[in-house]
Amino acid sequence: MPEIALDRRRVLVGGILVVLLLAVGGRFLLHSKAPAVPPPVRVAAPARTTAAATIFVNVVGAVRRPGLYRLRDGSRVANAVARAGGVTRHAQLELVNLAARISDGEQIVVPRRGAGVVAASVGGAVASGPVHLNSATLEQLDALPGVGPVTAQKILDYRQEHGAFGSVDELDAVPGIGPARLEQLRELVAP
After folding, report:
1. Cα separation of 146 and 153, whole Å?
2. Do 139 and 151 lie in a common domain?
3. From the centroid of its chain, how far is CA 132?
């Protein structure tokens, strides 16, 4: 009988060892799997630009210091005129839209009073010109020959959508202005 007790002890110790090995092995297998959610990826923040985009404009006419000026993108005509030293007492400022946004490469003309400007006669009323496409109001565009309020609004909408006019030829892209109308307006308008 002592041999049977010894065999029972061996079987019991062996069983306990197997259970322990299974427990340790199972725990190892469970913890060795890759996590379901990958660890977060660190991404470097984009470098912040301290300088805004720069544009260049040419300010001419009745200003104290005509010339080429560097401005921030999104500047207005008023900013460009101020950089040019402001207007002179001979400036005809009512023809300039100081609130208009300017674009790179644009020329801003501040007309002088009494300067030889082209005049357009519309129904007996005289509108002084040239009308600047990048700063003209709806009323100024409407006063042009062959341009009614609807076409004038289309010009303003085109300017808002596509930015400043680079040349008078771009008027051809405005709905309602064809080649014949463009030739009629060529001497009366400026970009």
Report:
1. 13
2. yes
3. 22
d(CA 66, CA 61): 7
Mark whether 190 and 121 lie in a shared domain. yes
pLDDT tens digits in sequence order for the chain, 191 residues long: 556 666 888 888 888 999 988 888 877 776 665 556 667 777 776 655 555 689 999 998 899 999 999 999 989 999 999 999 999 998 988 888 888 888 888 888 888 887 644 433 333 333 445 788 888 888 888 888 778 888 888 888 888 888 888 888 888 888 888 888 888 888 788 87
Indicate if the alpha-carbon torsion angle 97, 133, 181, 175 is positive or negative: negative
The whole-angstrom distance between residue 123's C-alpha and the CA centroid of its chain comes to: 40
Choosing from 71, 90, 115, the residue where a domain stops is 115
Look at the chain and report how many structural domains it folds into.
2
Residues 64 and 104 in one domain: yes
Q: What number of helices (H) and strands (E) belong to the chain?
A: 5, 7
Q: Cβ(136)–Cβ(154) under 8 Å?
A: no
Which residue in the block uniquely carries the two structure tokens 């007309």? 111
Q: How many CB atoms lie within 10 A of CB 145?
A: 13
- C-alpha 75/C-alpha 102 separation (Å) is 6
